[in-house]
Amino acid sequence: MLKVPDHQVAGHQACDGMVGPLVDDSGHFYKPLQNSERGSAEVAFYTSFSSNNKIPNHILRFFPLFHGTRLIEASDGSGLHPHLVLQDVVSSYHNPSIMDIKIGSRTWYPEASDEYIQKCFKKDRESTSLALGFRISGLQVHGSKESGFWKPDKKLIKNFTAKDVRLILRKFVSSNASADSGVDPDCSFASTVYGGSNGILAQLLELKAWFEDQTIFHFYSCSVLMIYSKDSVSKGRSSGAEVKLVDFAHVVEGKGIIDHNFLGGLCSLIKFISEI
Amino acid sequence: MLKVPDHQVAGHQACDGMVGPLVDDSGHFYKPLQNSERGSAEVAFYTSFSSNNKIPNHILRFFPLFHGTRLIEASDGSGLHPHLVLQDVVSSYHNPSIMDIKIGSRTWYPEASDEYIQKCFKKDRESTSLALGFRISGLQVHGSKESGFWKPDKKLIKNFTAKDVRLILRKFVSSNASADSGVDPDCSFASTVYGGSNGILAQLLELKAWFEDQTIFHFYSCSVLMIYSKDSVSKGRSSGAEVKLVDFAHVVEGKGIIDHNFLGGLCSLIKFISEI
Predict the structure, then answer these.
(1) In chain A, N or C terminus with fewer CB closer than 10 Å?
(2) ipTM, two decimals
(3) Where are the transmembrane segments (chains A, B) (predicted)?
(4) In order along chain A (276 residues), what is the average pLDDT of each group of 10 residues?
């Protein structure tokens, strides 16, 4: 039984006649291969990554599991289409709060075409990418049974300033998060979700240590997903907060050089979160 | 008694009728204020930096001491010209080996004019800045009494590839450094100069820790100088290896954001050096 995912916050979505991802009820996420070289680049990354024995075990958990590719009926009913079969990283959460953060002040790789570079450069400059080293690409925050999810409009997210980003990172861990700009976020879940030895900050620091050393891949236009469930936190249980990396259509070989673009952006995000 | 410095490896030099820096015999370095806003920007930086009490003591030592500005006769004899009076960071060394490394994959700041951005962008792309997060701007390596200094031509340095950079960082700490590409650098000073608790690597890591936290300044187009004296090392004494930051004509306010561009490049340099 394939269906459109409930909790997708960024990227191409299955709506308006577009082909989008699908999920099944056994925790798989089916991502349609994009046309042109992007789709094959992402398959190539997952294939190379999965078979690389130089990735430490504690780093593997930041990546969705890869189960190959499969031809399945596209979400728009237009016939069979090749899909990446990945782990559905939010399937184990009830009412997950999710933020998708694209890392790097630069989302293009040096070998890209001038046209592509100009397009990305414009987006990086108009968003917070250039200034902060990252930009928020999407988010949903679960409020309560009554209020449901707060999920700001894509256009709104596109225009986030540095100040907005600071506020949103606070709202993300607040019990009173809403579109209302008059409400001061209480950050009541900050210590559980961001803090602690299993919290998001600890996980980001682990990733950072790996990025200071690894020279295998450069992750352009890749996102950090931050996921947690407010239900668990409210019940006094662990937040189950997790960091995952997603979107590898623009990963290139590192050639013995660290990914200083990703690392710089990641350090900037860490600083923002550590200040909350 | 002012004279043209013996050991300048990068930047504007007092030759060909150009105004360049001067030194005196009490350890001062006189840097002519550049025209336009660059000169005043550098004065503004030193003034602001010197009076900022949030800079930790162990970080202050990475910056040349600032002694204000002074009107002195320009190096080309064209009359009085305003100069920055700085500490001459190499005056205490005998036959210093020096490398000037411009940090950051991007040498322009987001608020710069399009024309300036395009100019810098081209240089960053043609040099190793974009790929490595830093580029070598100049160097001199002392060989022996007989061979004197090896100081590659500026044009040669401009065309350094990633592979060249790796080689030069090895040559810099070798007893057999020379222009001869057939000679394999012996790296015989690597453990003393790069390594150890007072070595260059330890100093760069100290700087890195500060850059992970500081949000006061963004250092565009700023250089790390690495200095040591082979004479001392050969005699079994400490290398006196020092790291200094220089060139602050393009420092801008950090506005609460870390300098992820500098930090990323610095981490990349650290990785290169740690592999030697």
Answers:
(1) N
(2) 0.93
(3) none
(4) 87 70 95 80 94 95 96 90 95 94 96 93 96 97 87 94 96 86 88 94 98 98 96 75 96 97 98 97
B123 alpha-carbon distance from chain centroid: 18
One-letter amino acid at A167 equals: L
pLDDT in tens, B146-159: 888 999 999 999 99
pLDDT tens for each residue of B230-242:
887 777 667 789 9
Partner-chain contact A271 B258, CB within 8 Å: yes
Give me B260's structure tokens: 């992820």
Residue to mutate among A204, A267, A272, A276, with most B CBs inside 10 A, is: A267
Listed in sequence order, the DSSP H helices in chain A are 36-50, 57-60, 114-126, 129-132, 154-158, 162-171, 190-193, 200-211, 230-234, 260-274
Residues 6+ apart with CB under 8 A from B41: B248, B249, B250, B251
Could you give the domains of chain B? 22-87 (no CATH), 96-274 (3.30.470.160)
Q: Out of B105, B106, B263, whose CB is closest to A267?
A: B263
Distance CA A132, CA B218 (A): 12
